[in-house]
Amino acid sequence: MSKQSTNSTFNLAGRGILQGLVSQPGIPESPAQDQAAKFIPVDQIQPGACQPRQYFSESSIDSLAQSFQQQGFRGAINVRPLANGSYEIVAGERRWRAAKKAGLSEVRCIVDNYSDADALEFALLENLQREDLSKLEETEGILQLIEIKVGLDRDAAIALIGREGHSDRQSRSDVAPSAELQQIEAILSQLNIGLQTFRTKNLRTLRLPDDLKQAHLTGKLSYSAAFELDKIKDATLRDVLLQEALGNQLSFREIRDRVKTTAQPIHPVPSPPEPSLLDRLENNVKRAKKAKAFFERTQKRKRLERLLRDLESLLDESEAE
């Protein structure tokens, strides 16, 4: 498959084309697929350099491996030939891993010539169609695809989307988007992702703390829940809430409620300003004048006289300085 024909297929059929091109485990292939596919030894196949997935569930691979042991290999793996005679996976690495674990010697493959851009785009479409990718993996894969197809590295692409991708700027007829942004929008459109969604949701995953990234990457935490927990900036407190969310399998609503309670700002009542010594003296003189009964008590009267003598002595010393 040439780059031109591959891109035409993506543009015309979108995600639905994958239902015909990528076989599902347990679903018989069509005669056309059987004719196009061939069995290739497992040890002649290697993981793809353009694989957007960063995490594979071992339990899912074990389950699929058991199925292969009982029923034989099902589906097909999309590969591209390499110069050394081996093959690189374009889509289907989970099936390949399961086949290896099941002890199979060969697997059914569909061989095509893919450029790096075509291979990554196909893998992204395949995984998005299956909803296998985390939001973080999806984002990283799209940025890699932008780098290959548009020529903008990761940081430059993020900066461009942040600078030109705002909805208010797009709505202005006097501001034309750059050629690079138009190319990025075309790529996102092929993946059925809007520019604003990518800017406001996908790119946010890159700024998540490492603990939330890992929980989201392994499928234990949805990206919506990860964004909620990210509102807790105290790392120790956030980890406590994260472990509670994972251990008790809290729903998004439950996580949101806990975050609201934990993140409730505490506004301490400001202390009144400390009065000056002169203010305190005048205030106490006023109080003493009102407390007539105070002077009728012999013991307290004597204490007051001693305090007054001390005060007079201090004032004399101050005047003498």
Q: Biggest sheet: strands, sense, closure?
A: 5 strands, mixed
Task: Compute the CA-based radius of gyration.
Answer: 35 Å
Could you report the average pLDDT, rounded to the nearest whole number?
79
Instruction: Give the proportion of residues in helices.
Output: 55-70%
Second-tier CATH architecture of the largest domain: Alpha-Beta Complex
Please state roughly what percent of the residues sit in beta strands, choosing from under 5%, 5-15%, 15-25%, 25-35%, 35-45% or over 45%. 5-15%
Provide an overview of this structure:
With about 325 residues, the protein is α/β, with parallel strands linked by helices. It folds into three domains: about 120 residues, Conserved hypothetical protein from pyrococcus furiosus pfu- 392566-001, ParB domain (Alpha-Beta Complex); about 70 residues, no CATH class; about 55 residues. Helix content is about 60%, strand content about 5%. It has 17 helices and five strands. Helix 6 packs antiparallel against helix 7, helix 7 crosses helix 10 and helix 13 packs parallel to helix 15. The radius of gyration is 35 Å and the shape is elongated. The termini are far apart.
Helices and strands in order:
Elements (H helix, E strand, L loop, with lengths): L2 H11 L4 H4 L9 H6 E5 L3 E2 L11 H14 L5 E5 L5 E5 L1 H10 L3 E6 L4 H15 L4 H16 L3 H11 L2 H4 L8 H12 L4 H8 L7 H8 L5 H7 L5 H13 L4 H11 L14 H14 L7 H23 L1
Parallel strand pairs: 2-4, 3-5
Antiparallel strand pairs: 1-5, 3-4
